[in-house]
Amino acid sequence: MTGTILNVLTVIIGGAIGTFLGARLPAKMRETVMHGLGLLTMVIGIQMALTTRNMLIVLASILFGAVIGEWIGVQSWLDTLGQRLENRFAREGDSGRFTRGFVTASLIFCVGPMTILGSIQDGLVGDYNLLAIKSTLDGFAALAFSSTLGIGVAFSALTVFIFQGGISLAAILLGGALGTVSRETPWVIEMTATGGVLIMGISLVLLELKQVRLGNLLPAIFIAPAIVAVIGALKLM
Fold first, then answer.
1. Residues 93-103: pLDDT tens digits?
2. Which of 1, 90, 194, 230 has the fewest CB atoms within 10 Å, counting from its CB?
C-alpha cells in the first residue's frame, strides 16, 4: 500500500498547488489550457487503444462494461460522492466545477496500465517503484487539471486510495494465482487498450464536445481480462 499512499499525497499536493495558481489565471486562459489538456488526453487515449491485438475484445469489453455500468450506476455513485464532497468543502462559486473536477480526475488517475500493474506489484511483492513513477506523473497532472477544474481534482485522491488500494489488497489475497504480470501479458494489453477508449471519452468531456457517462464504462476495464481468460481457456487464441 506504500505506492498508493504516495500517489494519494502527490495528487493532493499537485491539486492544491494547481488550484492556488489557477485562481490567478484569466478565465479565457484557463479555458484554453483545458482544451489543450483535452487534445493531449485524446492522443494518449488513441495510443493506448491501438495497442490491442484484437479490437473485437475491446469492443465486447466496452459493450458488456456499459451494460453492467448502467445497471449498477457507477457514474451515479461518483457524481453523488463528488456532490457530497462539494457541499462540504467547495468554495462559494465553485458549484458544479468541483464535482466535474473530482469525477474527471478520478477517471484519469484510475484508468491506465500503470494503475493496475503498479497496484498488483505493490500488493504481491511490495514493489512500489511503478506507482512511485505514476505518483510523480499524477502530481503534475493534478497540478495542470486543478488549474482549470479546481480543488475537486485534489479530492480525487480519495478515489485513487479506494481503487488502487483495493487492487493491491486483492493481489495480496490472490497471491501467486496472478502469476507473472507485465505490460506484455495478454490481459494487460487488452485492459490497456480498453482503458484507452475510456481516456478518449475523457477528452470529449474536457473539450466540451460531449458529456459521456464514463463512470458507467469503468467495468469494461475488468471485463477485458475476463474475456481474454475465457478465450485462453477455450484455446481460441
1. 666 788 889 99
2. 230
